[in-house]
Amino acid sequence: MTPLNRSNHPATIHPERVLQFGTGVLLRGLPDYLIHKANQQGIFNGSIVVVKSTGGATDEFAEQDGLYTVVTRGIQKGQTVDKHTVVSAVSRVISAKEDWKAVLDIAKKPSLQVIISNTTEVGIQYVAESIFQNPPQSYPAKLTAFLYERFKNFGGGRSKGMVVIPTELITDNGLKLRDIVEKVAKHNELGKLFMKWLKYHVRFCNSLVDRIVPGKPDAETLLRKQEELGYEDKLLIMAEPYRLWAIEGDDRVKSVLTFAKADPSVVIDEDINFYRERKLRVLNGGHTISVPLAYLLGLETVNEMMLHPLMGRFVEEVITQEIVPTLPEWMIPEENPDAVREFAADVLDRFRNPYIEHLLLSITMQETSKMRARNLPTIQRFVEQQQQVPQRMVLGFAAYLRFMKAVRFEKGAYLGEATTPSGGIITYPIRDDYAEYFFNMWQKVDVHDAASVRNFVHAICDDSALWEMDLRPLSGFADAVAEQLNNLLTLGVEATIERQMATAESTTSGSGID
Question: Are 391 and 504 in contact (CB under 8 A)?
Answer without folding.
Answer: yes
